[in-house]
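Journal club prep, shared notes

We agreed each person brings one worked example of a sequence with its structure written out as tokens. Mine is o-succinylbenzoate synthase. I'm keeping it raw so we can talk through how to read the token line rather than staring at a rendered picture. Sequence first:
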Amino acid sequence: MRIEKAVIRQMKLPFKTGFRTSFGTTVVKDFLLVELYDAEGRLGLGECSAFMRPWYNEETTVGARYVIREFLLSELLRAEEIKSPEAFFDQTAWIRRNRMARSAVDCALWDLWSREQGIPEWRALGGTKNVIESGVSLGIEKSPAELLKTIEKYLAQGYRRVKCKIAPGYDLEYLRAARREFGGIMLMADANSAYTLDDIDTFRAMDELDLLMIEQPLASDDIVDHRHLQAAIRTPVCLDESVDSVDDARRAIELGSCKVINIKVARVGGLTEARRIQEFAARHDVGCWCGGMVDAGVARGHNIAIATLPNYVYPNDIPSSDRYYADDLVTPSTFIDREAHITASERPGTGFEPDWAVIEKHTVEKEVLTRADF
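Then the structure, token by token:
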């Protein structure tokens, strides 16, 4: 594989409605789109999920663009040959953190590489199932009554697993109302690091609700306090922000800090590391699932591919194309069936093609790079 041209697009995609979590409300998705072209003009696409503000992790859209251009694309466009996406990932392992920037390029390489091979990306990754299940992720509502209305709407669409964002003051009353109203649905909570061990009584009370899991209750960089929390409650703790690599997964599992791992492709640096984490977790009986970053269509395609791997055993945060945005960057659009299932495409690459009219509509700035630039 030899990269002849790359394009970085600064994108701005408005949400249909604001999405509220414990660290704020998002109304517009500012992100980067990376295009990689080989000598035959084949295209691989990757999405960089860093936000404009460093509230989810330390990366920002502006910083990620610099890393992508100056360190990742410059190396790609100087190389005579890229043996595989995994080889390039290891070749650039000297880049510390900056995993969302690395993910955009890693995913684009996997898309392009599998297109060159003429096979679906999910098969190239080693996926073992072509049908995956989706859950729905719900932001914090103004009241429990509003949450119940929202849950009812998505259950009617076929979703069977419901994830509710929580924060202090927006937790037990909301979750209890959901359990009372909807009985035995797969219900889980996502705290986005909004709590400390001082809130352990709150989590003990959640034990009564038979939650599927509690996602990232404590600090985003912690595995020690999560160990104490998991030892004190029955509900499985799921780590998200605390696991950025297979080494993080190893440490957390050895300590007993979690029983589940949410693998967000963007957070861990791309498909290459996501595959390694699920393989390691499987060897230690820790189940995984694919989380999302309120993804647009390109990242959603990669998420579908990775969720076909064998140790993705819980419903994933991979919703229909119209969940967050009115416009889809790719075609065909994705929709769940009545059992919240999505079938992976048998077409090469992610199985999706760019909708250039939509992409151009939401492009703020575009930079074209060739081998002559480096």
